[in-house]
Amino acid sequence: HSDEIARARLKQNEILPERVETNIFQVDNVYSPFSELSGDGLDYWTGEDKKGLYGLLFDCTGHDIVSFLQVGEIRALLKKGCKYYQSGVYSNLSEIMKSANEDLFALHGDDTICTAAVIFYFDFEKNILHYCSAGIPSFYIKRGNKMEEILMENYLIGYEPDVGFDEKALELEDIDEIIFSSDGFSELLFKDMQDTDPAKHDDVSAILVKLKRNIAK
């Protein structure tokens, strides 16, 4: 059993994306499992011309081998959908979420487990962020030293088989940084400074995108 966990942990670490930096943006990630395995997943990559940034982040239930298998499944479905979007098969991010949701119910039926997720596309030519949530409640933007929370709504993936998901857009003007995160990261980010328990209580994951304002404006 310990060997199985060790192999799973190694595989999770191997597929983590590395920092990406261009003359337009820089993207890093935070990835810290609560225990040996993480129920979170994240990925990001650029378009061929490096003028766009695609990404996904999701939060499955648990931190064990079962959640590890679920993480792999959700990642594969969302990554496939993003590639379809990137190649023009899908015209918006909503189709990615809808397809992933339908595929999960086709595979598991009533045993489908709910997952919170968000997918995004930075269009740096038009200076717009496109995003679509499935249960991730919010993300964060920074203008100068001020942090703002952007609320999102949508069903969790796996909640109902025939629900829709709404794509939203945000103009990037004057935004210096955008953070997509799991609940574990949000909990630590806004933890009361007087809290006597500094320990984390969940997997911690985030994607941090810094914009180079002299280019992005």
| Order of H and E elements | HEEEEHHEEEEEEHEH
Number of strands: 11
Q: Please mark out the parts with pLDDT under 50 across 5 or more consecutive residues, or reply none.
A: none
Please state roughly what percent of the residues sit in beta strands, choosing from under 5%, 5-15%, 15-25%, 25-35%, 35-45% or over 45%.
25-35%
Indicate the structural class: alpha+beta
Look at the structure and give the mean pLDDT: 88
Sheet with the most strands, sense and barrel status: 6 strands, antiparallel
Fraction of residues in H or I helices:
25-40%
Note the gap between the termini: 52 Å
Helix count, DSSP H or I runs of 4 or more residues: 5
Shape: globular
Radius of gyration: 17 Å
Strand order of the largest sheet: 1-2-11-10-7-8
Description:
- The protein is 29% helix and 32% strand.
- It contains five helices and eleven strands; from the N terminus they run αββββααββββββαβα.
- The chain has helices at residues 2-14, 65-87, 93-108, 183-189, 213-216; strands spanning 20-21, 25-32, 40-46, 52-59, 116-123, 128-134, 138-143, 146-151, 167-171, 177-181, 204-211.
- Helix 2 (65-87) packs across helix 3 (93-108).
- The protein is globular and about 50 Å long.
- The termini are far apart.
Topology:
Blueprint: H1 2-14, E1 20-21, E2 25-32, E3 40-46, E4 52-59, H2 65-87, H3 93-108, E5 116-123, E6 128-134, E7 138-143, E8 146-151, E9 167-171, E10 177-181, H4 183-189, E11 204-211, H5 213-216
Antiparallel strand pairs: 1-2, 2-11, 3-4, 4-5, 5-6, 6-9, 7-8, 7-10, 10-11
Helix pairs in contact: 2-3
Comma- or semicolon-separated keywords:
217 residues; single chain; 11 strands
